[in-house]
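Sequence only, no structure available. Ideas?
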Amino acid sequence: MGILNVTPDSFSDGGRFNQLEVALRHAAEMVEAGATLIDIGGESTRPGARVVSPTEELERVAPVVEAIARELDVIISVDTSTPAVMRETARLGAGLINDVRSLQRDGALDAAVDTGLPVCLMHMRGEPGNMQDDPRYPDILREVRDFLEERIAVCETVGIARERIVIDPGFGFAKTQGHNLNLFRQMEQLLEMGCPLLVGVSRKSMIGRALGREVGERLYGSLALAALAVSKGASIIRVHDVPQTVDVVRMIHAVESAREGEQA
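Reply:
I predicted one. Tokens follow.
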């Protein structure tokens, strides 16, 4: 899953792709490199990010979704919690709703049902503006699992089947460094929930803290976590650096698909 932020304030690439031609070109490059999903976001969810209005978010996202749906053969994921954005982008060709708030914003659950699209539910406490205010959990894995199970149950009651739900542990959202590392170490246990697992850690601060690297120096750490996520059963890897990550995933697949006795 290639990341396409059409925002001025995202933590890694804010402002780089918020013009339509540039955004479409970058999406095309990611598809050419091997991305099978493009995740378009019009509201930054970095720690401390400001909330944008539904109108502003839609004005950022809708033209990009429409252009990509017209020009590229790729699944479009929309990174949004806003009901109006869900409905309009579904009409324009989106194929997945990726909601960091797990459809908890007023009207989001109904909007998701109306679109008929699969959804990705992510663990987070609070809002991006306050989520890092001293988060505490007695057991981070149990907290994440219980939260996601509760949100899946809510979705099922309104007709969104478990088979149409992807789960995201929410690395970097309302979690300390220790929470992030321990959750990553144990996350294969979340597969017992029966939903595909999406992992998004590309260039995040958990890498920066572990390696002492600034945002632009986190490629190798991101690739290490991508490889580890695949080995732990992740189905979708959400990344900024598509060509490099595709090589990692293809190499893992080449090794794991080799048959005994085969010769070069």
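The first helix runs from residue 20 to 33.
Hope that gets you unstuck.
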